[in-house]
Each structure stands twice: as structure tokens, then as C-alpha cells.
Design goal:
Shape: globular
Radius of gyration: 25 Å
Oligomer: single chain
Number of strands: 2
Strand order of the largest sheet: 1-2
Largest sheet: 2 strands, antiparallel
Structural class: mainly alpha
Strand content: under 5%
Helix content: 55-70%
Distance between the termini: 52 Å
Length: 444
Amino acid sequence: MGQPVREYLLTLCVTVAVTYLLTGPVRKFAIAAGAMPEIRARDVHREPTPRLGGIAMFGGMCAGLLIADHLQNLNGVFERSNEPRALLSGAALIWLIGVLDDKFELDALIKLGAQMIAAGVMVMQGLTILWIPVPGIGTVALTQWQGTLLTVALVVITINAVNFVDGLDGLAAGMVCIATCAFFLYAYRIWFGYGIESAAPATLFAAILMGMCLGFLPHNMHPARIFMGDSGSMLIGLVLAASAISITGQVDPDTMALFVGGERNATHAMLPVFIPLLLPLTIIAIPMADLVLAIVRRTWNGQSPFAADRGHLHHRLLELGHSHSRAVLIMYFWSGLIAFGTVAYSVHSASMWIVLSLAALSALGLVLLLMPRFTPRAPRWAEGLVPPRYRHAERAAEAAVREDEGREPEPARPVVAGVSGVNGATAVGPRSRLPDRRKAGSAR
């Protein structure tokens, strides 16, 4: 088991490195190509920012698949299954449409049609749902048309859910990365815990998707230097959907020896099988709630359901007083709580402490949500490891002044009524600007 873990880590690291290194040149290319749309009324950012970040993410995905094909254990995924080629075909198509949309703003119906075609391309190459587990009944085989329709629907819904949540810097990539990490743990457990090789492609797809998001996030965190655009959001949405389809539609629940005992036991035992279908919903849950609220809000106000506005959840968080970074972290928190809570419950569904832990974390999330003015402060021993905004005000302001003057930070000393130094001399010169800087900082 140790060897596959190292190979997954190598694949993850290669994907992260390639995505990260490609994003800088892609940003320059996007600026030169004019892929910097004008700021719209509903946008949160205030400066034109280049798109086309999906080019770097697609390059990272190709690098991850290439390195995995040359590894001893992961090479078997390409020999025994056609799913990696199916994923690459569908991803290339949806990525190309996304690149064109980032540059030329394609019509929504054209993008919807391209999403359905990309899903159909994957279905034609074998990446499709063949059966679905039904609690108390067992495995229900699907006809070819039923499997195709269900696969296309899941791909289209997941792509648009990820695209819909891409409203703040680093939000979509971070939420997808969190949900994919939980999905990877589940798929890896199915493969090595139950010895089912059919779960290997989904595990590989999850590792590559994590690498794509992690490699892009440093460039996309607030303030973002580049956006992933539709070329990136639709791409990671398709990879996420392909992972869920692979493990749900190809892994036969009967091989997991779940149906032992009566119908009641079978119903409880089937719970882990539903997790692959539920984990993509951790991405869809928040955007879908936002979508329903937006439709109700716009219809109530006499507007078209498709009219753009500033009433989305991330706009609401900003209106409550949360900063940009804090709003993103709150949505990260809820995404992680849903994703990892779902996986934990599937492993130990009878454990009461998991339910109590989820309830306690949900309460904590509500407290953070309703306290936008609360700013956590790091302990004094850790202040050198955190940004200035999380340090105590006096020491943070003093450190900022020293940084402006290009001097090395000195050990912190108590500052009382503007008196500093060993002899208690009043600070003069550059230190006299300290109150002004605090005032300016409070104004920001």
C-alpha cells in the first residue's frame, strides 16, 4: 500500500508544480491576448484581471496523467480502463470552449450544448453510469439510454455548479479542492479497503484534480492576479463529475459484500455507496441554495430569473461586514464540514460522536458567520508567523513602520504613551508617525 501512496503523491506534486509554473506565463499571454473583460456592476474586484487560468490547469492535468502512465502501479489504470482517455477527450473539448468563452463571451446555450457534447464523448468511450445502488433492493442495472441521460445530467449540473460558485478570489478552486480531498480519501478506501480495482481511475482523477486546484490557488487568492475563467471552472467541474461517475457507475456494490442479512442491514450498508454521488453535491449545495434564492428574489422583484444582480451569497457575506478573505474562508469551512462530515459518517455511521462533532462545528460556523467584526489575534509567540492584521495592534503597527524603513525587526518592547527605549526617551523621527499609521490602518 505504501508504494501506491508515494505514486499518488508524486502525481499530485507534478500536477501542482506544472499548474503553478504555467500560470505566470498564461497570465502574460491573457493580457497580451486581451482576455481582460471590463468590470461589471456585479463584480467584486475593482481592477481588470486577466482570465484564461484554465490553460494552466489543463496543462497540469495533462502532466499528471502523463506521469501516472509511467508509474508502476498507476500504469495499470491506463491498461485496464479506457476512462483516462475518455476524461482527457471530454476535458479537452470543454476546455477549448471555455477558452473561447473567456476571450469572446460565447452564448450560454452554446456552452450548454458543448457541456452535453463533452459528456456524450465520455459516455461513448465507456465513462458512464452502468447501475445505481438502491437501499433495500440492491443494484439496479440501467439501460444504455438511462445511463447516458443520468451521466450527462450529472456532468452538466456539476460543471454549472462549480461555474456558479466562482464569484470570489480563490473560492471555486478552494471549495473544489476541499471536496476532492474528501473524495480521494473515500475512493482510496474503496480501492484498497475493499480491494476493488474499478475504483482506481476515480482515485487517480481526484489526485490530479487536487493538484490542479492547489497549483492555481497561490495565483488566485485575494487579491487575485488571474482568474480561472470558464476554461478553468468548467474543466474542474467536469473532472469532479467524471470522478464521481467512475466510482459510482463502475464499482459493483455486490463486490463490497454489503448485502448480508435482512433488508434493514442492507439499507444501512448501502450508505457508503451513495457517497460518490453526494460528494459532488457538497459543491452544488451552496451554489444551488444561492441559485434558488436568486430565482425567488428576482421573480419577487419582477425581474427575469436570469438577470444578474449583487444578491448572491458571497455578496451577502461582504454586506454583513466580512472581508473578502474572511467570506472565502467561511465558505471553505462549510464546504469542508459537509464533505469530510459525509465521509466520516459513511465510515462510522453508527457513531454518535461524529453526529455531535458535526453539530458542534455547525454551531461554530454560525457564530463565525454572524460575527463579521471579530478579528482573531494570534498568541504573542506566534505573531511572527502570521500576517500583521492578526497581531496585536501596537506591535503590528511598530513592525509595519520598521518594514517601511527597511530596518530589521527588533525584539518587541512595551510601548507606553509614546515612550520607548531603555531610558524612556520619547520616540522622535520615524517613530512619531506611528499614531498616523494606526489611524490610516483603521480607516482601511
